[in-house]
Hints:
The protein is an alpha+beta fold. It has helices at about 40-55, 135-150, 170-175, and strands at about 10, 15, 60, 70-75, 80-90, 95-100, 105-115, 115-120, 130-135, 165. The model is unreliable at about 1-10 and about 170-175 (pLDDT under 50).
Amino acid sequence: MRRWRGLRRLNSVVEIITVDSPKAGVLRRKARAVGRITPQIQQLIDAMIEVMHEANGVGLAAPQVGASKRVIVAEVSERLHVLIDPKILKREGEEIGTEGCLSIPGIIADVPRAARVKVKAKNRKGKGITLDADGLLARVLQHEVDHLDGVLFLDRVVDKSTIREVAASAEVEAAVPTA
Length: 179
């Protein structure tokens, strides 16, 4: 099995890169397009899904596990979405919601996002798909696509007084989206 350069395995699962990690630079770089979906990309997707589930997250972008690839996974309302080379085509409306991030543990803040989005991508089989999303899924998709562009949710906060610390377990209990 070929290993991804920059990914460290912990108990067969890759670890989440946090902003205080020596590898945090990957979080601020624009991720590279995937293009052809190889067995290594499939392995990356499987690892991302496992990490997202273990961390009780609702979304994860490849840079968060150290891979500079345009891949995101999201699970909202028990529906798993795998998007490769996603692009947001349309944004409508605006909502302010509380967000957290697996790469910025213990911090939440209120972030304005589009209420509805249309996203074009490839699924893990390489088929082109278009996804219309609203509510939590729209928020998660925007948060994860931001990661692919080197943007963190704190960069989107308008009212800095809404940035607050929480215990990691409190984030999950409060049902704050952690992506």
